[in-house]
Design goal:
The protein has 105 residues and is an alpha+beta fold. It is built from three helices and four strands.
Length: 105
């Protein structure tokens, strides 16, 4: 199974900072998906930056807040997607949603 995520910020990130954000956001997948990082998984996080707001030069650790938020938001997005998903039917049969299997409460 594969989980794809996109994290975006309006902070002005360098390529290396965006790569770090994607890696940290990937930790959000590990918080929400079990098992994770298996040999046949294609889990990927893409990072985007509009560059509209420069990071505070006087605070070299300003990036940490963005990194933490990226991981938290990926976790929340996965949990929300699972909880709001609906059952589906296809050629392989019926795939029950989490809510149908375990209740919506």
């Amino acid at each position: 199974n594969t989980t794809l995520a996109v994290v975006a910020t309006d902070a002005d990130l360098s390529k290396a900072q965006a790569q770090k954000m994607a890696g940290t956001a990937h930790d959000g997948i590990a918080r929400a998906v079990r098992p994770v990082h298996l040999l046949n998984d294609g889990d990927t996080v893409f990072a985007l930056s509009t560059g509209a707001h420069p990071l505070a030069a006087e605070n070299p650790l300003a990036l940490n807040d963005i990194l933490a938020a990226a991981a938290d938001l990926v976790t929340r997005a996965i949990v929300r997607a699972v909880r709001t998903a609906e059952s589906a039917e296809g050629p392989g049969g019926v795939w029950l949603s989490h809510g149908e299997l375990y209740g919506r409460g």
